[in-house]
Amino acid sequence: MSHASRRIRYVLKRLLQAIPIVLAIVILNFFLLQLAEGDAVDVLAGEAGSATPEYMAELRAKFGLDQPLPVQLAVYLKNVAMLDLGYSFRHEMPVSELIFDRLFATMLLMVSTILLAVGFGVLLGLVAATGLNTWRDTVISVFALITYATPLFWVGLMLIVVFSLNLGWFPTSGMENFAMFYEGWDRVFDIARHMVLPTITLSLFYLALYTRLMRASMLEQAGQDYVTTARAKGVTERRIMFVHVLRNALLPVVTMAGVQVGALIGGSVIVESVFAWPGLGMLAFEALFSRDLNLLLGIFLLSAVLVVAVNLVVDIVYSSLDPRIEVS
Amino acid sequence: MTRLLEINDLHVALPPESQRPYAVEKMDLTLEANEILCVVGESGSGKSLTARAVMGLLPKPRVRIAKGEVLFQGEDLAAASDERLRAIRGSDISMIFQEPMTALNPVMTIGAQIDEVFRFHEKMPGRERRRRALQLLEDVQLPDPEQSLKAYPHELSGGQRQRAMIAMALALDPKILIADEPTTALDVTTQAQVLKLIKNMQATHGTGVLFITHDFGVVADIADRVCVMRNGLVVETGSADQVLNAPEHPYTQALIAAVPDLVPRPARPRSSKVLLDVKGLRKTYRSGGGMFGGAGRVVHAAKDVTLDLAEGETLGIVGESGSGKSTVARCIVRLNDAEAGEILLDGADLRPLGRAEMRPYRAKIQMVFQDPFASLNPRTRVGKIIAQGPMLNGESAEEAKRRTLELLDIVGLDAGSYDRFPHEFSGGQRQRIGIARALALKPQILVADEPVSALDVSIQAQILKLLDEIRDAMNLSMIFITHDLRVAAQVCDRIAVMQRGDVVEVGPTGEVFANPQAAYTRELLAAVPGKDSFKSAQVAA
Amino acid sequence: MTFWKLFARNRGAVAGLAILGFIAIMGTTAQLFFPADPFSLAGKSMSPPGENGFLLGSDSLGRDVAAGIAHGAKTSLLIGLLATLVAVLVGVVMGALAGYYGGWIDNLLMRATEMFQTIPSFIFAILLVAIMKPSIESIVIAIAVVSWPAVARLVRGEFLSMRNREFVQACHTIGMSDMRIMLREILPNCLSPVIVIGSLMVATAILIESGLAFLGLGDPNIMSWGFQIGAGRTLLRSAWWVCTFPGIAILITVLAINLVGEGINDALNPRLRERS
């Protein structure tokens, strides 16, 4: 079997494996909904102010809430499959619509963060590992150690204090300045300016993580036998570092990049609420304040699906880096 | 005329906290063109670091050349610049290693790794480099060279990987090839092929080969000259014939005497009482598969294995890796569950017994394991390791301790060992502890799974002698698993030869060796390194 | 004895331990130095640090930032330790069973941890606390729920490799029970990575707790650093100190724990140390 067809099989296999995970998350979601005090009818009744028990029972029958649990679960699964995530009574909109409105902003933040964190993390880790125990290594390691210990929201607030309030370089919040009615490239530039601080904030922690990982991975690979072989062949130290070691050292970093996507989305809740970035995280923060559980669960579900999707991309990247991907 | 390689008064210094100051001391050595010089020694003798010192590949700065010169065609490599060394490595001097799986870069194709040798030493157009690489793979007899160029290391077998390594090392027709235990990780038949290949390539190119090994059999097969090392010092150098047949130094004499003779020792009379009867044993391993993986890989580790063991007899099970010999041993002691067949101990079938039902039989069959470092719990004191078996089987603490001390004495360890931890002991001593543990339950049958394969040859001889004494003193029956036909010849009354899960031949050791019936047995016997040597060398160890 | 010697070779770890000790003392003696309720009005509001008797200033309701930090230390450490303890206990039990027995338990655990790797754990923690209503217990449970899979995976891996080690097999051949093999033979040999991951997990737990409190999901009756920052973020323009000092407290605490964790790692795995 050729390498290409093996890769395709691998990716297909990963895709298949993702299905039960998504299914499990949907079921978990359903039970979390059950766990919460009160159901949708209670919320509706609360909205309306007063409702008779008879009317509430009628509503329950209408929504199928009087059915046995398995039936409710089946209905829920069917609804989710049709992208119906319920109704947000606060926003008076279907949850799915609300979420898809905000998806783009979050994706924008996430992709830029991943690129920044992985890119610079790999670079810094490489610099630290090649200059082992020199001042470069020390500076980078101390930087990583401190960043690794800093809470995201605090970094965000401090960046706002320094760069927005004192220096005035970047806006404090939002994704674009609607009052200016920018169009075309002006608008892109405006969004980019708004993006700088949130992206840096969200990146820092992961940047530290990947830097440490890359450094450790480089050091581990540098001690492997194949490095001695390359040296015995008379290959230059430069090539050993940047071709042999680097490519092997990248493998765990790429794997970790996939694993961390979930945490990254979690972090975006905090960063988006600090910078009022109009994405899923901000929506979650609003839902949290208005106790809009339906919406919160919808966001949770979609973010999990997002993680699955990004992980699939990571798997494809990984399969092109490592020829040893499992066949069976 | 200048020598190809001349090492004068070489000292390789170890880091300060090491056991001895120098890994290699006062070493003098010469290597001529078109000869194979074997540097032979046990673990810790400094033979591998010698090889690395020549290549300038010592793990600097912790280990470094402290004194002496390494003259390559008159040029001192110990004083050469890094740049000069790099230019020499891979073109004039090249090297192959013990473990080809880890020595090759897992994410680069074989072709790309060979190509590097050309790219970093000679200016050559890409097409020419590719043609040469292809030619090399043909020369080392890799099947389908075109495909092998594109293959990644994990796609080749162990022997093929080592061939690829050899191709890489010989790419620029080096004057010196350094081979560091290149066949130790290979099965015996593959080893024979690779040795033949090295010898052929060496002869056609007139290369000087510095061959590092611990195996005197290998030495006998390929060496022109031999250099014996011990604790960093060269104890004896000479022609192969002289060192192997008339060793001068007592250490060399002892080492050669410790090599087991391939001529089986006379068989002992076989008891008519069959103690263990294994019938139609079957064990299959499945890997991969699962919910979405489709069909997994299926390995038939044992298919329809039938064996019997008489009282007081030693039955050897021999075969290469993957033959299923260890699986059979593990099924018999019930560490693995066989799917089908019978394991009759004194008429009682052990195979279907559950954990609780198996308990009363556990003590009767005990096991000695291969790896003396993995077979003892590093956090448990030696006394407890041995005594806990009897105590679990209802003996009082005092009784168990008394017995443990007695066993320590039997296996040749002093009573002070009782309160010490395993890491305070050497490999051979640990294996003695493992034997004492197995004996603590007064077993009828001892199953020994490669008990000496991780040990140096002199230690190996001592452990084999100990097993012999114990067997006679306690009237033990023994199943002895080994890949080494020399060991089998000296230990076993009968042997069973296994290949890919099948027993291809069973019989008294003498008969099997003298008149092998199965083609595979003949192949195995033919592949034993140094099979024509050491016939008369057998002296009391 | 040797452990302390090895640990002390890492100067950062010793410094971390000292800082951690100081913070722990600060937390336990908060009641002595700041006997008043940290939520109560203690003086003039919006006082900058050093003025009006406020060491680190006061917020818009006149609450003492320094008192909040001292009391918050107790909260952070308590929640960090408790959540880690629960997560480690659950993780070790699950991982040990799965790694040792394999089969369906293992399958179940692996699927569960895969799911936990997929769901954004912080959002999951938010959901759990929101559903259970914010309190110390619900926060501890939420953090433990999102943290145990990492321990379970680690312990499973260790048990999986250990169960095929020859010394474990030797225990089978002498008829030792599974329970005893797991507890007395295997577990002591894989404790060191568990201790290391546990110590780092305390740091993560403190970060998660502060994040939850920042979003308003802290226990409303207990002062915490995250709450202080969350409450002070609207004052960013006028009173920078309200947000800044609690943040530094978190940073130093987490940094100290990470340093100690690295020191423990170095001491328990001396082999790894030599390479770097």
Brief summary of the model shown:
Chain A is mostly helical and 328 residues long. Chain A has 13 helices and two strands; from the N terminus they run H-H-H-H-E-E-H-H-H-H-H-H-H-H-H.
Structure notes:
The complex is a heterotrimer of chains A (328), B (541) and C (276). By secondary structure, chain A is mainly alpha-helical. Helices cover 78% and strands 1% of the residues of chain A. A two-stranded antiparallel sheet of chain A has the order 1-2. In chain A, α11 (261-275) packs across α12 (280-289). The longest helix of chain A has 39 residues, at 184-222. Chain B has a 6-stranded mixed sheet with strand order 6-7-8-3-9-10, with helices on both faces. With 541 residues, chain B is α/β, with parallel strands linked by helices. The two termini of chain B are 44 Å apart. Chain B is globular. With 276 residues, chain C is mainly α. In chain C, α11 (225-232) packs antiparallel against α12. The model of chain C is unreliable at 272-276 (pLDDT under 50). Chains A and C meet through α1, α6, α7, α8 and α11 of A and α5, α6, α10, α11 and α12 of C.
Task: Compute the CA-based radius of gyration of chain A.
Answer: 24 Å
Assign the structural class of chain A, choosing from mainly alpha, mainly beta, alpha/beta, alpha+beta, or little secondary structure: mainly alpha
- What summary fits the major beta sheet of chain A? 2 strands, antiparallel
Q: State the secondary-structure class of chain C.
A: mainly alpha
For the terminal residues of chain A, how far apart are their CA atoms? 12 Å
Spatial shape of chain A: globular
- Helix percentage range of chain A: over 70%
Helix content of chain C: over 70%
Low-confidence stretches of chain A: none
The strands making up the biggest β-sheet of chain A line up spatially as 1-2
| Number of continuous helical runs of chain C | 13
- The quaternary structure here is heterotrimer
First-last Cα distance of chain C:
24 Å
Radius of gyration of chain C: 22 Å
Elements of chain A, N to C (H/E): HHHHEEHHHHHHHHH
